[in-house]
Specification:
- By secondary structure, the chain is α+β, with helices and mostly antiparallel strands.
- It is built from seven helices and 15 strands.
- The strands form three sheets. The chain has an eight-stranded mixed sheet with strand order 4-3-5-6-7-8-9-10, with helices on both faces. A five-stranded mixed sheet has the order 12-11-13-15-14, with helices on both faces.
- A hairpin with a 3-residue loop joins strand 7 and strand 8.
- Helix 2 packs antiparallel against helix 3 and helix 4 crosses helix 7.
- The chain is globular, with a radius of gyration of 19 Å.
- The structure holds 6-O-phosphono-alpha-D-fructofuranose.
C-alpha cells in the first residue's frame, strides 16, 4: 500500500516487513543512503559556487580525470555507510579495490555489502547537467564473523536485496527497490525530507525515445546500426526521438517515465562497452525489471551474468520491454 506524499521514513517503516531479512536492517541501509544523498545533494547544488569544480588532479581506476565532487561523494557515502554498523564492505567506481568495513568490535557481524557509482555522469557537473548516484546492495555470502572477501561482491545481479539511484536534477529524487516494485521520493530541500512522489514506477511497455551516443555509430556492431536505422525509419509509430543526456541515471529516469530504451553497446573501440556491470548495469537492471522493463547485454539478461571482476564492463540495453526485445532481435540477426 503506497500513500502519495508519505515521507520516506514512514514508507520504510510501513514496508519493512516485506524485506525478507531482519526488519531493522533494511531501514538502517536505506536511512544511510538517504543521509548521504542529502549531504551530496547539498554539495552538488552549490558546486558552481565554490572552487570544488575542475579536476582533482588524480585519476581513478577507469583512467578518467576525477572531478572533486566524485571524490567528495565517494567519501560521504563510505563514511555514512560505515557509521551505521550494517555494512561489512563497500565497492566503488572511485576505489581500485573493495573497502572492508571492520565493525567496532572486530567481530564482523555486519551482513551487507554495498556497491556504488558515487557520482555517475560527473563530466556533466561543470556544465550544470543532471548527475546521479547509483547503489547496489547484497547480503554477504561468506560466513558472518569473517572479513568480507571479493566473492561477496562478485554476485550475479539477481542476488541484489536492494538497488536504486539518486538523481540530482531540477529536483533531487531517490528511486529504489527492495524487490517489491520501484518507488520514487522527491526531496523537499527546505526541510530535508524525501516525499513519496512517484509510487510504483513502471516502464511503459514500449516508447518513442532511444538513447545512445550516435557519435560512436561507425564503431557499433551491425545489429546496433540496423536497430538505430529501424528507430529512424518512417513506419508505424516511428521515427522515434533521440534523447541522450550523457548521464545514465537521467536518461534511465526519463525513459522509465515516458517509455524508451537506453543503449551503451560494445564497439570496435570499447569491446565490452563502457558501463560497469556491478555498480551501474546490475542496479539499473534490477530497477528496470521491477518496473516491468528489461535489461540485457544484447543477448542475455544482465541480472544472470556471473561477474568475474569488480570493474568489469558489459554492453547495456535497458528500458521498455518491447524496445529492448526489438533491439535484441537485431543483435541476434
Ligand atoms: P559517452 C557517464 O560517464 C556514463 O557512465 C553514463 O552515465 C553515460 O550514459 C555514459 O557514461 C556517457 O558515455 O561515451 O556517451 O560520453
Amino acid at each position: 500500500m503506497t500513500k502519495k506524499n508519505q515521507t520516506l521514513g514512514e514508507f520504510i517503516i510501513e514496508n519493512q516487513t516485506e524485506f525478507e531479512y531482519s526488519t531493522g536492517e533494511l531501514s538502517k541501509l536505506i536511512n544511510a543512503i538517504r543521509l548521504a544523498a542529502k549531504v551530496v545533494n547539498h554539495e552538488v547544488n552549490k558546486a558552481g559556487l565554490v572552487d570544488i569544480l575542475g579536476q582533482a588532479g588524480e585519476t581513478n581506476i577507469q583512467g578518467e580525470n576525477q572531478q572533486k565532487l566524485d571524490v567528495l561523494a565517494n567519501e560521504k557515502f563510505i563514511q555514512t555507510l560505515t557509521k551505521r554498523e550494517i555494512v561489512c564492505g563497500i565497492a566503488s567506481e572511485e576505489e581500485d579495490s573493495f573497502v572492508s568495513i571492520n565493525s567496532q568490535d572486530e567481530k564482523h557481524q555486519n551482513k551487507y555489502v554495498v556497491l556504488i557509482d558515487p557520482l555517475d555522469g560527473s563530466s556533466n557537473i561543470d556544465v550544470n547537467v543532471s548527475v546521479g548516484t547509483i547503489f547496489s546492495i547484497y547480503r554477504r555470502i561468506t560466513p558472518v564473523g569473517t572479513p568480507v572477501t571479493l566473492e561477496d561482491f562478485l554476485q550475479p545481479g539477481k542476488n541484489q536485496v536492494a538497488a536504486g539511484y539518486i538523481i540530482y536534477g531540477t529536483s533531487t529524487m531517490l528511486v529504489y527497490t527492495t524487490g517489491h516494485g520501484v518507488n520514487g521520493f522527491t526531496l523537499n530541500p527546505a526541510i530535508g525530507t524525501f516525499y513519496l512522489s512517484h509510487p510504483n514506477m513502471q516502464f511503459p511497455e514500449t516508447g518513442k525515445i532511444y538513447s545512445v551516443n550516435e557519435g560512436n555509430y561507425v564503431h557499433f556492431p551491425q545489429g546496433v546500426k540496423d536497430y538505430i536505422k529501424y528507430c529512424q525509419k518512417e513506419e508505424g509509430n516511428r521515427p522515434y526521438t533521440s534523447r541522450y543526456i550523457g548521464s545514465l541515471v537521467s536518461d534511465f529516469h526519463r525513459n522509465m517515465i515516458k517509455g524508451g530504451i537506453y543503449m551503451y553497446p560494445k564497439s570496435s573501440v570499447a569491446s565490452n562497452g563502457k558501463l560497469r556491470l556491478l555498480y551501474e548495469c546490475n542496479p539499473m537492471a534490477l530497477l528496470a525489471e521491477q518496473a516491468s522493463g528489461k535489461a540485457s547485454d544484447g543477448y542475455q539478461r544482465i541480472l544472470d551474468i556471473q561477474p568475474t571482476e569488480l570493474h568489469q564492463r558489459v554492453p547495456f540495453f535497458c528500458g521498455s520491454k518491447k524496445m529492448v526485445e526489438k533491439a535484441e532481435e537485431f543483435m541476434k540477426a
